[in-house]
Known about the structure:
Blueprint: H1 2-6, H2 10-23, H3 28-40, H4 44-76, H5 79-92, H6 98-109, H7 113-126, H8 131-143, H9 147-160, H10 165-177, H11 181-194, H12 199-205
Amino acid sequence: AQIHFMAGRAGEARAQLEWLVARYPRAWGYHYRLGEAHEKAGASADARTSYEAAAKAGGEELITGHVTEARQALSRGNLELAFDLGWRLARLAPARAEGHAFVCLAYARARQHANAVESCRQALALDADSEDAHRGLAIALRALDQNAEARTHAELVVRKSPRDAEAHYRLGDILAALGEMAPAAAEFRESTKLDPTLPEPRLRLGD
């Protein structure tokens, strides 16, 4: 089925995957691959049904495992894997924000900032308190020179994670771009205090 799917023969892949799903109904991966085949064929309703079946077969453990793996992929800089896991989460759990938030962060780190903004806003529409989405928006909007809005999101991240050195640095960078140099320097100092090994705030302070 995977060979047919990769070759673009979605009809043959769907037939084989439907047999596999019937034979192994508790194997979430077959349901998910069938959803992909439906999606490729333009059968969006059937795709949603298959993704729902995959999520049911895998249970909450499947979702939490994907969240953990996506976060680890981002921390290691493996953006390709982060994208893959993020989109998969968005399909498996469409009512939850995590998938879109991870895609948003991956886009931001890949410097595809307009796409990051779109994905972050999708995440926030599902969960207005998503720290990952606010973090991604702060990064992307700063890159797009939309610093007033970026500040709002960066301040929220700092409030949620006051011991996050990188969050303080990003807020300081945004404040500096807005011409608020004293508050920016305070954020750089806090960032350095929390993580003396982080080079960017030390450079901004002239250390």
